[in-house]
Amino acid sequence: MNRLERATMCSWMSLVVCWLIAAPVFASPSGTGFLVVAPDRGALGNEEIRRLFEEFNQSYRPASLVFVGRDYRGPGTEYSPYLSGALSDLTQAGVTNLIAIPLFLSSADPILANVMASLPSYDYSGSIGWAQPMADSYLIGQIILDRAAALSRQPSDEGVLIVGFGATDQNNERAMQGDLKKLADYLGRYHHFRETQQVVYYDRAAPEAEERNRVADSLITHMAAKKGRALAVMASLGPKFDHGMSLMSRMKTQFREIDVVLSDEELLPHPNVLRWLKKTANGYQPAAASEVGVVIMPHGANQVWNDAVEQVVAPLRATYAIEMAFGMGDARILQEAISNLEARHMRKIVFVRLYALTRHLKERTDYILGLTDSPTAMGHGGHDTTGTYPPQVRTAAQFETVGGYEETSDVARILHERIVEISTAPADETVFLVAHGEKLDEDDAKWRALINAHIETLKQDPHCAQLKAIRAATVREDWPDKRDKAVKDIRDMIETASQTGRALLIADRLYGSGPYPKLFQGLDYTLNDKGLAHPVLTGWLRTAIDRAAATLTAPRATPSR
Fold it and tell me: What residues contact residue 547 under an 8 Å CB cut-off, 6+ apart?
């Protein structure tokens, strides 16, 4: 062991540092407060975390930060006065619903496990719930992604090691390995490296530390010996007494000797750690109505089409902060819209898929928003658009999503108006309500069934009751093999109707006629291409947004762990 290693070990074993930063003493309306529990890293590392907490604490109060080290064994041992003090300060601030946020990668970290087990033993009368650790958030996966991308040259020729720290026995080592595997899997979604492995180093005070760390060293040496480059990313918040006496300094020296390219930093510093803290808090602290923004995602087309949609949205801007995100789940456009709302101090966001059916682009956008861990790249008609994993937004905001304007019964009111606008002699007219359609036959049948439900409502109207017929149709326009048959069937129906009367075609889409003029060229029919862009749709939007916003502003339950 060299001088630096001895100094690092001795300092880590003997130094006890704990900072407690309490927020200004006032109670939030819900009685919710936050206890950020962090590892005692030494002076420089703790200062790094303290700065992070101070930025968090500017917007999230009451909150306290407490550092806890490996010598903590519960009430009455080292660090327990700091936990007691934090709980006392939060109680005085009116906190009855305490959310403990672990600034630890894994809940299996032995330091965190001790705190989680002992916290109920302290003198605190309110409820205590634990938020999930860092490894459970895609935001932390993005840190690993960024670190690896900064090192990589040719992923297919490179092996990546995700390196953790702090195990004390083989049980928590295996559990921590599992959390590192989550990060490795996330990295694998976006970069196809030759291989990835996870390595957990033991705390040097652990009984098996020397032996188990030799095993970790051998795994790294084996990776480095393979053809191609070996990269190592530190997924840790290790000791950092100063720039020389730190886990990173030791690892850089060690990896340099075996030709491994190491990331420059651990998990900190990185902006996603603050985003993760805020996002976690946002999940439990109700937002004021003024802190709820709205992103509306219509398909988008030319300026005329876009302006028609903007007119539908315009009356809502007096009530909500709204950003438009035209497109089919374009992650970069969504990121810009969400970032714009966060810059306007929105903490929670209603995301509206302004598409016909609830499921349209839901799976794709839910993944982009970080609401699901099962990414798919499905378009609004159910087809695969890219076959790749879209990037996920980097945000602290919490989301509630809505979609499916065609599913509201009020659409029949719009369709009635569109029919009456071009109908002159209903007894001689056949109306065709023509929509986009789906790829799968079963899904397409469901869409037509929805339109038929509107038709049943229309038939209750005196004018529509006089029509010869009202028919639902879909052109299935994005799939040539399906489209050709669908269009042929509709053309035949239009031609038959026009031989004995008038054929009226209503564009059952958000706005415009899409490809209909080309698809039905040469036929005798009258087209209303105004679509569903109508004040009724504004009303649907208002109701849907109000309902989602009410969910986002409601008090959240305390998690039990």
Answer: 402
Instruction: Please count the other Cβ atoms lying within 10 Å of the Cβ belonging to residue 155.
Output: 20
Q: Is the dihedral of CA 88, 90, 92, 97 positive or negative?
A: negative
Strands (E) in 501-559, as ranges, are 502-507, 526-528
* Residues contacting 185, CB < 8 A, separation 6+: none
Contact (CB, 8 A) for 536 and 411: yes
Among the listed residues 545, 514, 543, the one whose alpha carbon sits nearest the alpha carbon of residue 531: 514
Q: How far is CA 536 from CA 403, 407, 420, in A?
A: 15, 13, 16
Distance in angstroms (rounded) separating the CA atoms of residues 253 and 232: 13
In the sheet that holds 526-528, the strands lie side by side as: 469-474, 429-435, 502-507, 526-528
Kindly write down the DSSP assignment for every residue of 142-210, as one continuous string: HHHHHHHHHH-S-GGGEEEEEEEEEE-SHHHHHHHHHHHHHHHHHHHHH---SEEEEEEEEPTTSTTHH
User: In angstroms, rounded to a whole number, what is the distance separating the alpha carbons of residues 293 and 52?
Assistant: 25
For residues 101 and 236, what is the distance between their CA atoms, to the nearest angstrom? Answer: 16
H/E/C letters for each residue in 411-473? HHHHHHHHHHHHCCCHHHEEEEEEECCCCCHHHHHHHHHHHHHHHHHHCCCHHHHCCCEEEEE
Alpha carbons 272 and 145: distance in angstroms, whole number? 12
d(CA 239, CA 304): 59
pLDDT in 10s for each residue of the chain, 561 residues: 443 343 333 333 333 333 333 333 333 556 899 999 999 999 999 999 999 999 999 999 999 999 999 999 999 999 999 999 999 999 999 999 999 999 999 999 999 999 999 999 999 999 999 999 999 999 999 999 999 999 999 999 999 999 999 999 999 999 999 999 999 999 999 999 999 999 999 999 999 999 999 999 999 999 999 999 999 999 999 999 999 999 999 998 888 888 899 999 999 999 999 999 999 999 998 889 999 999 999 999 999 999 999 999 999 999 999 999 999 999 999 999 999 999 999 999 999 999 999 999 999 999 999 999 876 655 554 444 445 889 999 999 999 999 999 999 999 999 999 999 999 999 999 999 999 999 999 999 999 999 999 999 999 999 999 999 999 999 999 999 999 999 999 999 999 999 999 999 999 999 999 999 999 999 999 999 999 999 999 999 999 999 999 999 987 766 654
Type of residue numbered 161: L
Which residue type does 303 have?
Q
